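Checklist before submission:
- one chain only
- standard amino acids only
- sequence pasted in full

Submission:
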Amino acid sequence: MKKIKLLFSIVLFGLIANSCATEELVYSVPETKNSNQLSKIYTGFPETFESGSKTSYVAADVTLPTGIWNLNDALIGTLSGDRKNGAKSIRIRNIGTVTMKFNSINGASSVSVLHAKYGTDASSSWELWYSINNGSSWTKTGSTITTSSTTLQTATFPMAIKGNVRFEIRKISGGTNRINIDDMTIDDNGALISGVFPETYESGSKTSYTPAAVTLSTGSWYFDNALIGTSASDAKSGTQSARIIDTGKITMQFDVTTGASSVDIKHATYGTDASSTWELWYSNNSGSSWTQTGSSITTSSTTLQTATFPMIVQGNIRFEIRKITGTAIRINIDDFSITAYNGTGGSGTGGVDGDHIAMGNPSGATTDITNENNYLMEKVQYKLSYNRSKATANWVSWHLDPSWTGAAPRQDDFRADTTLPSSWYQVGSTSYSGSGFDRGHECPSADRTSSVADNSETFLMTNMIPQAPVNNRQTWANLEAYGRTLVSQGNEIYIIMGCYGVGGTGSAGSANTINNGNITVPSNIWKILVVLTQGTNDVGRVTTSTRVIAVNTPNINTTGAWGTYRTSVDAIEAATGYDLLSNLSTSIQSTIEATVDNGPTK
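Returned file contents:
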């Protein structure tokens, strides 16, 4: 996965003042790069706990390079029994906690923590919790971790949090048994990628339209029929902006190394000039060839507007703005921002191998809790879009290859998903009781048998839908088994399953809702399987001949071979309104999404 690993790093664009209300953070001095590279500003993260001192378990604050932490029933260990990557680490006993008292301002896509048993102590367990409201309330992320090794192990917690976030480690079992914690690291959530981006065009000078390179704060740009405008007629968010005339262009002469999931550009007409049109192009081979991204933009306003270009490109990338219409007509360009590649996006050509939504985010689900009927939840084992009003997922998406299967037994620990926002209704283990509908898994238990923890996560009620028993235990069970057979034959599969409509027929008859109206019974259940031979560059390997199985069944209590319910991806999109497999190129989508599979079913 190519992603900007800022190591709990917070990329700063004049946001330092907003990073914490009461605590002062200490930032390192940015390294100076040459003009063809980007300078990056880092904080002191990852927190290595090397510089602090606290020798007592009594609750107290300790100042570390990253900020102020509260250690409760915890200290900074330096003994030979302390497991550490250096000279020091945190040691926690009883049900102690280690808490950040400051925010990481760019959210988190994952957190990793080193952990081990202290000395010869027995195993104990701990959890990672986070807060997005300055510590007023906390939410658990990921699974409970059992520390049983005397050598440092890495616990990783995938998540999808934007904006301010802080973390707390809570030891929850083991009594006086102690654990060590070291090297806490955060991957940001697609933060802007450089300390000098966005490019504001404030630092350069170019007064002529004659083609020439100009050195800006981000690096060297080539201006052709373009200059740096400073006049009163130039639309700008500071004292300068780029001005382009005729069919001019401005081009980055350096690469950003972390790809892009979107680009934002401010634009406006110059003075009283008429409207004109421009495009954004990118190159991932250092300018040897270029590809347009997004639609052509018509600039017609005299005040700066923001054009956003969603994309999904990994690795080295550079950009070029091309004005394509309007002879002798000028536009202004300002505040050019790049958001790093983060594994998700629209109709791009990227996608992270093994990411559960590598093929696309079907409904554009987000982690914003105000988006309550399309709320993105990211588990280690799968990802889903949750619908608060229906109390079921809109869809669940997961990757299946041999690494996910093993000998772990079925846990049957159906339970509420406590990671939902606390104010939302939580479906419980008995909420389907007496309804005549099964607690139908979307991501199946048998697709996650590599560990007890993985299997257990499939029993969260956010992974369940009210499913007619025969439909669940026969039609869908057979399709699930067939998918695992394909994996045993050397394939890997990207699977998306969802439901839509209202009203199904279970063993007790028809119903639109269950659980006193809290849970909507869907009328249809669908699934898509993208089948690939095991390998790398998964999204890039999908071709017009890739096998894609799409199935759509009514939620009724009769049996039927799953093969008889095969349909096209286009048909499911028409029924749901989703944009499925959106990370594939549009040319490939147009072929495979229109095709109805006719391959073997056993």
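Reviewer check: The longest helix spans residues 469-488.
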